[in-house]
Amino acid sequence: MRKVVILTTGGTIASLKDESGFMRPGALSGEELLKLADIRLDIDLIVESVFQLPSPQISWKNLLELKTRIEEIYENDDVNGVVVTCGTSTLEEVAYFLDLTIGNKRPVVVTGAQRGPNLLGSDSIVNLRQAILVANSRNSHDLGCLVVFNEKIFMARHVKKIHSYNVNGFGSYGYGYLGIVDRDDVLYYVKPVRREVYSLKREIPLIYMVKCGLDTDGEFIRCAIENKAEGIIVEGAGRGQVAIKVAEAVTEAIEAGVVVVLTTSCDEGVVYPVYNYTGSETDLKNRGVVIGGSYESKKARVKLAVLLSAGIKDKAEIQKHFSD
Known about the structure:
The chain is an alpha/beta fold and about 325 residues long. It is built from nine helices and 16 strands. The chain has helices at about 30-35, 60-75, 90-100, 125-135, 220-225, 245-255, 280-285, 295-310, 315-320; strands spanning about 5-10, 15, 25, 45-55, 80-85, 110, 145-150, 150-155, 160, 170, 180, 185-190, 205-210, 230-235, 260-265, 290. The strands form four sheets. The protein has an eight-stranded mixed beta sheet with strand order 4-1-5-6-7-8-11-12, with helices on both faces. It has a four-stranded parallel beta sheet with strand order 13-14-15-16, with helices on both faces. It starts with a strand and ends with a helix. The mean pLDDT is about 95.
């Protein structure tokens, strides 16, 4: 019989109301969640609770543990696919980390829920069921890590949480989704043109994110330098422009040996040298900043962490990896 392994990590999909009346993410173990779901498919389902956490509490250490467990599971040829359930707050980061670090052609499918399994209109069980179908499908092979949410199948690279509570909680601005799950059918319309997978050689380094707005100063960047960060993601406006004080602090970071990657706060479009004034993307590039292209800040942080952990330190080489 076909076999799919479900690894649960907590989150809303495994939540219950506590005595206060509020939801407690990860209250259900994986075994309890699967029993509650009562999913009836001609698939041998194996469930394992890796950890039971609200997703904002997931650490790099947890992700490395999850990665190792998936790699161990895929040592068995009889496993068709792996499903990972987690909270939606960091789901896109969890999925992208797995996408960049697991090279097996068989699918890793990440899903979650906006409403707990016991709430009216819950999306917990349907999302889990559809993720299992996608993980079991031969057409899901060699696509990297996938995210299944509200009947849609997304690339981990481009998926983003777009709503704080609606069941249509994830989208992919500018790129769309790869396919859908219609009842028991997994249907793909497009597929990614390439994959990139890295072998980690050292611990995950400290990477900060700094979001810039009107008259932002450089103190958060200086704080990152003082705390020995190896990388800083600077989220600028529009094409990537920032205030003068931020640009000055960026120079200090680069001179201290910190890798600085420039992203944009816009949901669509790319960072691109267009303007030429102090704090513009052209000015920042001349100061030694890595242009983040189409990467949004959280994905850029995950990718820079993986690149540095993989031993890629040369700035020109890092720039190549952000130019897709």
